[in-house]
Amino acid sequence: MSASSAAELTPNANQKIVQYLNDALAMENASEERLESRLHESIVEDTRIQLQNHLEETRNQKDRLKQIIASHGGEPTVTKAELPMLKPNTIDLVRSDLTSRSSSSSTASNSPSNAESTQSQANPSVKSIVKETDDVRLAPEKELIQTERDAIIEHAEVVKYKMLMEIAIKVGAMDAIPVIAQNLKEEEQMANWIIVNTPNLLRRIWAQIEVSAGARTVPEA
Ligand SMILES: [Fe+2]
């Protein structure tokens, strides 16, 4: 063991650094699960390649954290933290508004606005356009929203490791510092990649997103 390992810390300091290392591990446990699901659903190949790379990095980050937690006498957690997101997402609100208007027009007879429902019954293409929009045209928009959340999560991870670094320095857990530094560097690289790649992502999907704005006006006509 190095001169700065568990034996050199007070029991309280050691317990605290274990708790904070486990807090980072809980974040990575959740992050691994999210990366796996994003990898399956992403419609952009460059993104999938990057997500795959970062998934492997994340598994290595977890292993490094588990080792340092164990070397400080701690039990690595299997808890999954709740990952950050901005709520409400107003773009999703627009979408659910669209969906509810579509379904209310299909339950015609009890609706007070009979004229409107009769009109949409007479014109079944209204409903089918909405459905097509949901299934096809909104996929690029979902990708953009999820990419934005990817970036929020990766930046939150950067914050987590920067704070953890200061805590490790404060308690003198010098053996944890290279692990935290390595994880921090990888999170910064991933966070930067998402932002730098955004023009490339938009080049691929923005035209479809813009078309979906036009499609939303169709059910109102
Ligand atoms: Fe990450």
Please tell me about this protein's structure.
It is built from six helices and no strands. The N and C termini lie far apart (73 Å). By secondary structure, the chain is mostly helical. The protein is elongated. It has helices at 11-41, 45-71, 90-106, 114-122, 125-171, 177-216. The chain has a single domain (6-84, 145-220), classed as Ferritin (Up-down Bundle), CATH 1.20.1260. Helix 1 (11-41) packs antiparallel against helix 5 (125-171), helix 2 packs antiparallel against helix 6 and helix 3 packs antiparallel against helix 5. Residues 102-122 and 217-221 have low confidence and may be disordered. The structure holds fe (ii) ion. Fe (ii) ion binds at residues 31, 54, 58, 154, 157, 187, 190.
Fraction of residues in helices?
over 70%
Rg from alpha-carbon coordinates: 24 Å
Please give the number of β-strands: 0
List unreliable stretches of 5+ residues. Answer: 102-122, 217-221
Which distinct ligands sit in these coordinates?
Answer: fe (ii) ion
State the shape.
elongated
Spell out the helices and strands N to C: HHHHHH
- Count of the separate structural domains: 1
Name given to the CATH homologous superfamily: Ferritin, core subunit, four-helix bundle
CATH level 1 class label: Mainly Alpha
DSSP helix count?
6
Mean pLDDT: 83
Going by helix content, strand content and strand pairing, the class is mainly alpha
User: Which architecture does the CATH hierarchy give at level 2?
Assistant: Up-down Bundle
Largest sheet: none
